[in-house]
Model the fold of this input.
Amino acid sequence: MSGRGRGGGRGQYYKDRYGGRGRGSSNRGSEPDQRSPSGASGAVRDWGRLQDDLNQIDGSQYGAYKRLLGTYKHAQPKFALSIDHVQGDAYAAPSRVRAIMPWQETGLPDEYLESDVRKIALCDFVTRVAADFIRSKHLDRNIGSSDGGWSGPKGGAFNINAPGQEVLPRTSAMISGNATIELRFTTTLPAAGRTVLGQQAYQILGVNLVDLARQSLLYANLNQTNLQIHVQSVERQRALRTQLAGRGLIAFIANGSILPRASGSTAFPMEQSQAIPFRSPKEFEITLELPDGSNVGGMGIPCGITLLTGGGFHGKSTMLEAVELGIYDHIPGDGREMVVTVSDAVKIRAEDGRCVSKVDISPFITNLPGGKDTKRFSSDDASGSTSMAANIQEALEVGCKALLIDEDSSATNLLVRDQRMQILIKKEPITPLISKARALYNELGVSTVIVIGGLGDWLSVSDSVIAMDSYVPKIITREANQLIKQYPRVVAEDPQYGSVPFRKLSVHVTGSKPPRALRKSFIAVRPQTTNPVHDPAEAEPGVDLSGLDQLVEVGQSRTIALLLQKIANETASNPLQLSGLLQAIGEAVGLDKAMPVQLPEGDLVAVRRFELAAVLSRLRGLTVAD
Ligand code: ADP
Ligand code: MG
Done:
């Protein structure tokens, strides 16, 4: 970053890189432009013109690149290179191009068009092929080096938004009307100082991109077996997930799954030789049916209250993490591609310091000193317990059906209050989850899966107890029940859960800049507040998403940023009820639908309504109607 030789630090770097509005470029609105996906604005030209145009502008001022806007038609294979956005200079946010091929030309079998799931899986696969090609040919590198000085060659980097371990609806590859399939890239059009490097630009757009389109869009060049396995695997995961509710399950973990990751910092699976493959205990072993009629065996985690326990370092958190991410489909070979969870399960953690806006946390917290209203609780800097209570209530507000909790990342006083403390401290504002979990399930049908290491009182309220023993799960519900008889404890349980929030809200985003995701865990946003709290790392106001464990890609954060702006436009003068609002959005963007083609960017990835709601709820300056 320092090599860029300009002041402004990290915030400036990101601004330039992801700002979407570099110096000198026009002031585009935040709304996606609505032009038809296949016809960019500008001229339609034959392929030969590309080289001519680049020759003509070689050595001209950088702005001459704008002449490329529009479409160049390639003949063999037939596809259109659509140049949709040309950056203002070599430092600005990169230019956006697409390769759009008629479906017929690809030779891809029509069966891949048969459902949204197949389209999502196919596009995900094609994106991976393109990303691998780009990486292996080093097309993602800049030409020249930074020591070439100001006038040395710059730019050249060519990119596609590369996926992680999850198969998700993305804007990097899209099928439009079953007629075309397109790949979306960014590239930094090359320059020396401020002048166009026509030859290098031709190498990128006229040569490399053609190669790339050939390799990743023509069925003849794809690894057809791997494509089939990829699509089939996703269809299987969907099929398993849809069976959960009918079987009274929250999650299913197939035998043989590899749950642990290679390290705490990667999403890649642990090496087969080191990992203990998952093996279901007999008592909870079930079989689910795959689309081809075959069966798969594994452990079903039932609805109700389930404890995951066991000694430290025996694999409890690893199993819960696998369940958290079971809301997504995984790529073959991930190890967790046969771990599926109901799509409305939400990880809950304590998140002290977060902002809370008029949330009803009264089931858990009442009678705060000073008479602070807990039916409309607000805080700029919530505590561990109040943040966790808000997280639960906000998840319920938008329809969560299972809470996933790890003692390690919780506020203990929100989970439990033991007998001695009940006797000792009479004026306790907190009613812990242990006293509510039963009512939550009975009244609202919301299950709890909780990792418990040290809080033995939870044994008294659980339906099932799974103990991890050297990474092997055992069912110890009976032992636990005997223990409860032997060492009885008084656990106060509320017969009623209490109320769930139902907020009407409006979002105000002021200033000229739309919200932007700088990285997965941070969205820069200018809220309407007199005293925005700054993230010290960014020197920019925004929302910290690092507490959202079920967010997996920065592209999801970008989508949330885009939707925030849309929601601001809709609600600024017209407060809307949160779950209704998210319902409407969910009809356009969700995990089970291909992304809307009219979105202009190629780096957006689908998110659930829960993560979107979580970001809305964390906005400083959110207005909640009375
Ligand atoms: P706990 O939450 O019970 O303390 P963790 O889930 O954090 O334990 O796991 C402890 C360590 O064991 C982690 O480094 C994890 O990667 C590893 N681990 C978890 N499950 C397995 C497994 N099935 N095989 C091998 N190693 C595992
Ligand atoms: Mg743990």
